Amino acid sequence: MMLDNPATKYRPFVAVDLPDRQWPNRRIETPPQWCSVDLRDGNQALIDPMDQERKQRLFDLLVKIGFKQIEVGFPSASQTDFDFVRTLIEQDKVPDDVAIQVLTQARPHLIDRTFEALKGAKNAIVHVYNATDPVFRRVVFHVSKEECIEIAVEATTQIRRRMEEAPETHWTFQYSPELFTTTEMDFAVEIVEAVAGVYRPTVDKRMIVNLPATVEVATPNNYADQIEWFCRHVANRESLIVSLHPHNDRGTGVAAAELGIMAGGDRVEGTLFGNGERTGNVDIVTLAMNLYTQGVHPGLDFSNITPIMREVEHCNQLPVHPRHPYVGDLVFTAFSGSHQDAIKKGMAERREHPDAVWGVPYLPIDPLDVGRSYEAVIRVNSQSGKGGVSYLLEQEHGIELPRRLSMEFSQVVQEVADRLGREITSQMIYQAFVDEYLAKVSPFALAGHRLSSEPDSPKVHLEATIDEDGERRTIQGEGNGPLAAFIKALAAAGHDVEIIDYHEHSRGQGADAEAIAYVEVRAGNEAVFGVGTDESITSASMKAVMSALNRHLSTRAPAPNVTEDSLAGAK
Ligand SMILES: CC(=O)SCCNC(=O)CCNC(=O)[C@H](O)C(C)(C)COP(=O)(O)OP(=O)(O)OC[C@H]1O[C@@H](n2cnc3c(N)ncnc32)[C@H](O)[C@@H]1OP(=O)(O)O
Ligand SMILES: CC(C)C(=O)C(=O)O
């Protein structure tokens, strides 16, 4: 019996009353305004905040991706941030169509310092915040609701005046009631309206109202309800840009942002790959690519995602998880057999209909759209099946195994994978294929052959030179084609062989092209596969029969010659 239940110290979130909510019926048809807060909220959560060099690299990357609003720091808080803002402005590093945003607390000396940092900026967003949540009012600030409003109003008054004193800058004002989601909704509206009453936004000069889920405390539908409730109740909604700033404490930051946009959010603040305080800010890459897969271009360029990820890893000194949506090193890779089979079939269909709507099983997005190749889509280990093995042989070695042969060969590969207990590369699979089908050249080997035919006769006559148990001999036969003649010749020499199935194709191109033949034969009471390659298709088919006979007669090795050493060499 559980005597003590620690969960009793928590209470469920109390939902806002919105029975006629509209957001569940909407879908996102246009992207929101994006604001990157990597250089501020992301940076303030790093073990070692970025230096100038890393900040500049990340800023340049954000511009290149297409962000038009970038929160570049908290210049009144640190000299590094102050200097960075000055460098951006003085060295003219901000494109004309990009606004730099800076954060400040609602305190007079910090606001003054913020404006010092922004002197000469072309386009700037001044972002001021104070906490409005009841616990913060009581525990952190010791203020009443009225005093809380007073802090915001005084700061806004000062900011408005400072903006008017510097008309050479195109200013935008942003206010955040910090911890919006745990603030009483009517109080959130009241304080925003008080701030707007001072700033006096219009439809032509809109003010950004940023509604943060500073700490994510409820399921994302609650955030959407709050956003819709706020948008319906706040005065002069049309003069406000409603901005969302979700964090990810419950792991649902992306969902909260998406539902928040459906509920009326115009703008999203977040970071690349979700860096940020605690579990992070909402991940803009995932949000943007989620939109993309719904047919809505996000207006951000993630068409070559890997270098973006590496640059962000360098700047943040934090790794991106290999399973991170759309970008992690493993997200376009299938190891498991049934997934590989479906992907292989989907890819084959796509080759036939390259302009069709995307529909490759298990791949929510075409890897090419984010600059990834198909090469790593299928990788093989002990969880894999014939689909993956055949896919790799086909894609990387030009070997198109017939279905039944691929079933047999996948068992060979499975044995190797189980034995090694790790991934096996396409080079190792190829080696296993060679060992199993092409390298077994005793007791039979083909030394040469000659074909002839009588004029007007459909029959061909074959004379083949073979090595059998180290002894060279000549055998002869006649048939409707070279392979049939060879089988007859073998029968005449006392070998009971019959062709069950046969496939061939050419492999490689130009001077390197060769033929590859696959046979399934009945030898004695056994059905056995063989494979042969040669410049000539006739020799390839005869070698395939020899390969089958050798496999029939040899004591089957339990697994081909793939070892830990060849694993190292093949990598
Ligand atoms: C949710 C967020 O991400 S908000 C952004 C958080 N980011 C940061 O804090 C990073 C940068 N911050 C800093 O470097 C520092 O906090 C500074 C330089 C801004 C201020 O430093 P200090 O003056 O030493 O204050 P401190 O860091 O202790 O902050 C607490 C004080 O600020 C006050 N305060 C905090 N936020 C606000 C606000 N938004 N508006 C007004 N006052 C505020 C508190 O009441 C407290 O005042 P008190 O000392 O009189 O009790
Ligand atoms: C300053 C505000 C917007 C913030 O970062 C938060 O609430 O998370």
Automatic annotation (TrEMBL):
Its EC number is 2.3.3.13. Residues 32-306 form the Pyruvate carboxyltransferase domain. One of its GO terms (molecular function) is acetyl-CoA C-acetyltransferase activity. It is found in: Cytoplasm. PROSITE patterns: AIPM_HOMOCIT_SYNTH_1, AIPM_HOMOCIT_SYNTH_2, PYR_CT. One of its GO terms (biological process) is L-leucine biosynthetic process. InterPro entries: 2-isopropylmalate_synth_dimer, AIPM/Hcit_synth_CS, Aldolase_TIM, IPM_Synthase, LeuA-like_post-cat, LeuA_allosteric_dom_sf, LeuA_N_DRE-TIM, PYR_CT. Pathway: Amino-acid biosynthesis; L-leucine biosynthesis; L-leucine from 3-methyl-2-oxobutanoate: step 1/4. Its cofactor is Mg(2+). Residues 440-571 are annotated as: Regulatory domain. Keywords: Amino-acid biosynthesis, Branched-chain amino acid biosynthesis, Cytoplasm, Leucine biosynthesis, Magnesium, Metal-binding, Transferase. GO terms for cellular component: cytoplasm. Coiled coil: none annotated. Gene3D superfamilies: 3.30.160.270, Aldolase class I. Its main location: cytoplasm. Mg(2+) binds at D41, H245, H247, N281. Pfam families: HMGL-like (PF00682), IPMS_D2 (PF22615), LeuA_dimer (PF08502). Signal peptide: none annotated. Homodimer. Catalyzes the condensation of the acetyl group of acetyl-CoA with 3-methyl-2-oxobutanoate (2-ketoisovalerate) to form 3-carboxy-3-hydroxy-4-methylpentanoate (2-isopropylmalate). NCBIfam families: leuA_yeast (TIGR00970), PRK03739.1 (NF002991). Belongs to the alpha-IPM synthase/homocitrate synthase family. LeuA type 2 subfamily. This is 2-isopropylmalate synthase.
